[in-house]
Amino acid sequence: MPNIVVVGAQWGDEGKGKIIDILAKDAGVVARYQGGHNAGHTVVVNDEEYILHLIPSGIIHPGKICMIGNGVVIDPEALIGEIEGLKSRGIAIDNNLFISKNSHLIMPYHSIIDKESERSKSIGTTGRGIGPAYVDKVARTGIRMSDLLDSHLFREKLELNLSNMNYLLYNVYKSEQLDLEEIYSKYMGYAQKIGKYITDVSILINKYIEENMNILFEGAQGTLLDVDHGTYPYVTSSNAIAGGACTGLGIGPTKIDGVLGVSKAYTTRVGSGPFPTELKDKLGNDLRSKGREYGATTGRPRRCGWLDVVVVRYSVIINGMSGIALTKLDILDEYPKIKICVGYKYKGNIYNEMPHESSVLWNCEPVYEEIEGWQESTVGIKRFDSLPKKAKVYIRRVEDLVGVKIDIISTSQRRDDTIIKRNPFRDY
Ligand code: IMO
Ligand code: MG
Known about the structure:
Layout: E1 3-8, H1 16-24, E2 29-32, E3 41-45, E4 48-52, E5 65-68, E6 73-74, H2 76-88, E7 97-100, E8 104-105, H3 108-121, H4 130-139, H5 145-148, H6 151-172, H7 180-194, E9 198-199, H8 201-210, E10 215-218, H9 244-249, E11 258-264, E12 267-269, H10 282-290, E13 303-305, E14 307-308, H11 309-319, E15 323-327, E16 337-346, E17 349-351, H12 358-363, E18 365-372, H13 389-402, E19 406-410, E20 418-420
Parallel strand pairs: 1-10, 1-11, 2-5, 2-10, 5-7, 6-8, 7-9, 11-15, 14-16, 15-19
Antiparallel strand pairs: 3-4, 12-13, 16-17, 16-18, 19-20
Helix pairs in contact: 3-4
């Protein structure tokens, strides 16, 4: 039985939520391995919209086992809000959500530091405290989920952290200091509510793997936001790539059978950082309004541009992708000409592989290939054969350029409006 990673092939917001929701039907377990509530995964079922930030998108399927791995950083308040929101919509959680003991807590000082440090860094973070929580994890001063279950230990760790953090808040950021008792009692209250979900996720997931259950590893963000392989420093603070599934859940690489990359038929990015195919003109605005490109987490307008296959090809390599899900094809329906970026031009040189020098990425000119648009609606098409001829030409050209097959094509936000040529769980 296969275990499949679903990973973003661009800068996040590729439509991973919808693809995970579709594949979750055939999975026994859906597990998140990194990031935090910076993610925003939108799933539309029977015209009902669900936006998930922390809990795997598989939760919408009744009874599906959902796990949050050690690689995720968790703001308990956000988690509780999400649990309660789902419960109020009739979604069962209590017997099927498991949270790793080793996942790290986002503390109130993390989001303050995140916002304060933005003034000098200007990364355009979500301001949710994600980066500073990972800083503490790597500095070995972080507070983990398991600490929440031991009130004495939690208090001890909080005291130690808070004395340093209050110094930083007061002296460096000229910000108000935080009160120990207030945080302590708040977090003990959280422990009461989420204690029952906390467990050894690594042991549990490996048990399910042994039992031959289908496992779906849910990536958040995207390859170009990966802390090691993305457009550093304009990245998030975790390993969003497929390899992150191993460290972020405690499973061996031999347990992964396939990697499905999710890419939009065009490109978007939120926050700062280089974006070679960005369209700052009317066309970019048009893509934004047609594609409703506003952040699911912060509501920020997303920057929009043509599909960049230099980026997607790079993602195919870094993740060892075995297939691609192409989303939002329908947003390109009306354009008479569609552009695909096949390389970058900078100071007389052509780059066909992703350059890492920020000078190149910021200043290069995209080299475009122009394809004829199909100018017909593809909304709701469910079979590849039913697509307009020119849309098929476009898809086949993208396949050739990125070097991997497009297995799934999304033709609207709705669950059913999807062409599935190859389901990684069924056609393994
Ligand atoms: P999903 O899972 C899009 C971006 C932020 C910022 C940078 C760092 O919905 O695809 P952070 O708060 O993580 O320290 O911000 O990363 N970013 C995302 N952009 N989708 C996401 O997640 C993102 N998560 C973080 O905008 O540029
Ligand atoms: Mg997002």
